[in-house]
Protein 1
Amino acid sequence: MTKREYGHFIDGQWREPHQVIERHAPGTGELVALVGAGTGAEVDDAVRAARREFDRGPWPRATGFERAAVLNRVAGLIDAHAGDLARLDAEEGGKPIRLAQGDIATAATLTRYAAGLAAQMHGLTYTNNGPDFTGLVLREPAGVAGLITPWNFPALILCQKLPFALAAGCTVVVKPSELTSGSTLRIAGLYAEAGLPAGVLNVVTGDGRAGAALAAHHGVDVLSFTGSTATGRKVIDAAKGNLKRLSLELGGKAANIVFADADLDDAAEGVIFGAYFNNGECCVSQARLLVEESIADEFLAVLTARAARLRVGQPLHPTTDVGPMIHSRHLATVLDHVARGRAQGARVAVGGARGTGGDLDGGWFVQPTILDSVTPRMDVFREEIFGPVLTVSRFRDADEAVELANDVEYGLANSVWSKNVDTALTVSKQLRSGTVYVNTTIDAPPTMPFGGYKSSGVGREMGQAGFEEFTELKSVSIRTGKRSGSFPFGGETL
Ligand code: NAD
């Protein structure tokens, strides 16, 4: 692996950092990157450049077609550099390379979709406000957008935000995760290559201190944050100084609800994929299996055998299914969850320990794990584990399944497996989550809004709704001709 050194990208220039953060590859522990530790001063410079471009620059004043042309060029460049981008996310984040390649393909699709939204951005006209009145509802860019992203889908989550903000005519400051900044900086370079004016897109790397400075900055009008619920709460506090608009995509604790009348082969594949996709380090990870009692033992036997066959390995290896945890502290946290689950009465059906042996020894691996006999009182049922750990609980009927699924603080996504349309739709409507997958899982096209109920967040990403997060509405009420009578003020005409 080659060690990379990154600077900040501010006002169209690469800037040397004063201090750096070391990034070690999760698969091997090798030093792979030195990332700039941004401070309030760099955030200030970046916001000043974005502010100048928003207030006086060409980007917010360009036509939707002009903005779409740049975004479409960027999508082509992402495709052209897909191999490098995928490798950055796999090396720095530990995700299996096949998944990283999928992320980059979707990043390009999201950018093209956002280009279409730029081209058709429009407001409304009301012609029913009386004969002398015309009401215009203008849709305008919201201003300077701050974007803060996590480490688990570095390029993908960036592209759930950035092209949408730019499509709306916003100017942007991005603060990627200090653990996985490479692909964000590379994509910023692609925007410059595609002709985005200097200062419209700025990237300041660094840890939570740089994120906090961006969240608190009065020059930022709208902040889109993806990360943990705990950090989301801090962001709400920091953002209140200038009451900036917030979109928060936070944690989750999704359930896969499997009814006896499901296609059980299909459901088993879906449950395995949902639980172990992206090493289980996924906000919509289907970390809880709720299974109908009558088929539970048989279904669990199939899952246990399937989980044991998953290939745990180095992220760059083409056949790896499950890679390492993001860092050693997180490895310890995941194993601690398993230990607490056991102590509280869960039974380990498979896995339950650190992944070791061969080339796993230098990295931070966890064996794909299934904890059976999990009840709602246990911490593993309620807390986001964010690793390859699936909990199993049984239900008697649909009412109990819904009650169990909703009995957590989160509400990001759930899956329902049933071939009975009554069951599938009735349960979908009762689930308190922003997304429900029916007979599929972790399957979100860019057209569909994505976001959380309850402690999983505020606002939506992707789809028309995701675009609108980066816009403001302005009502313009126009009177034509001479008003008959007066304004109703004292009964006299001025
Ligand atoms: P995190 O909250 O630790 O960090 C997220 C980002 O916030 C990073 O860039 C970090 O540097 C920055 N940050 C840290 N402290 C900050 C502060 N005080 N103010 C502003 N920014 C700050 O989250 P993480 O560990 O990077 O990501 C994992 C979490 O993200 C999980 O909880 C996961 O569920 C959630 N997530 C949610 C979604 C979603 O769409 N809902 C998607 C992916 C991840």
Protein 2
Amino acid sequence: MSTNQLLKPITIEEGNNLCVGGCDMVDLANKYGTPLYVIDEQTIRSVCKEYKKAFSKYEKVKMMYASKALCTSAISKILASENFGFDVVSGGEIYTVYKAGIDMSTVLFNGNNKTPDEIELAIKYGVGRFSIDNYHEVELISELSKKYGKTVDALLRITPGIECHTHKYIQTGQLDSKFGFDLSQIDSIIEHILTVDKTINIRGLHAHIGSQIFEPQCYADEVEVLVKEIARIDNKYNIKLDEINIGGGLGVKYVSSDNPPSIEIISDSIIDSLNKNIEKYGIEKPTLYLEPGRSIISTAGVTLYTVGSSKQVPGMTKYVSVDGGMADNPRPSMYEAEYYAEVANKKNDSTKEKITIAGKFCESGDILIKDIELPKLEAGDIICVYNTGAYNYSMASNYNRALKPAMVLVNNSQSDMIIYRETLEDLVSRDNIPGRLL
Ligand code: LLP
């Protein structure tokens, strides 16, 4: 089975206590405290290898990792050691990979409103590609690349007009989108870039059709749109674009009813469409770039929480509250995302009770999992929520002045802190009281 089709990390062991990466989760909770993000290194490496193998059927492939899913220094090191490049979307992500010692030529800078400071940082550190999203940034890139005496290799971000069935906030390929150029605008941006100056080399096209995608056909359609455009641009402008970046988006299994296709099914659909359309439109084989985020890191991550208070509403829901919630995982309240959980210290307990796992934050919408059957819970039990590697820490907040949790990396029975837990001092360290209030 493909890693993105699993509910749990590949190293999960079900003894009396749940173990991941050879580490007992109850011990991890005791040692590092909760809430705790735990990342299983073997699961990341296994999914990377799976992607590389599945796409090796096409000659020219570059795998990138969409850092927005989870961007930390240690995670960047792991991905780089698997020969992945990086899709980054902010000065913060650029700085993180740079400080982690990543080869910046493997980095692509993407985003619909890159600020002058971010563009300058990207040019200074020598990111390998810009994904050009709008006219405004063409002027900025051109001005700043002149300042540094550099030229910039770029892809044009286009919206291919493909709608995938996913949550509307994470669809991006449809025409009415804030990202990129629609097909009718491509010629004018090319002509604009050609007239601005020679600092921007257009190398290819870039698109991303959405996230948590389960339909291989969406990718096949996307590839056709991109190849057709490359052929059209060549005919009209005699510009040979030799890179296509089809973004990320492959879905994962959060709950047992989710049925994502395997990485191989997706790769076959993409490669078949690519080969077919290369022939149909008569272009040279371009280099194919992919930039998955969620499917690389989601399954590798779990979050541990400690159970605190409970409340039975007579005749209705039983709420069991944990010591985290929407500040460390905003996805259920933002996207109605569903998760699966188990009790790390009660693997062999056969009692069952239907409960709702509530977070500790001050709003009713802070519910992590609605109606899940778990062994009877008591204060102090450790709940393990699965598939929290992607878009949890990266979207975490300090809501209610919560402290952001620690993150540990587990592998071969070893656990290492890769993000330190925030402290109360960290929280107030950025505060300032103006003199007149003292
Ligand atoms: N490339 C581009 C240009 C993107 O915009 C994204 C995600 C990716 C790659 C990676 O997509 P993935 O393989 O992770 O699906 N916060 C939302 C997800 C937003 C995704 C935004 N773009 C969530 O928690 O579901």
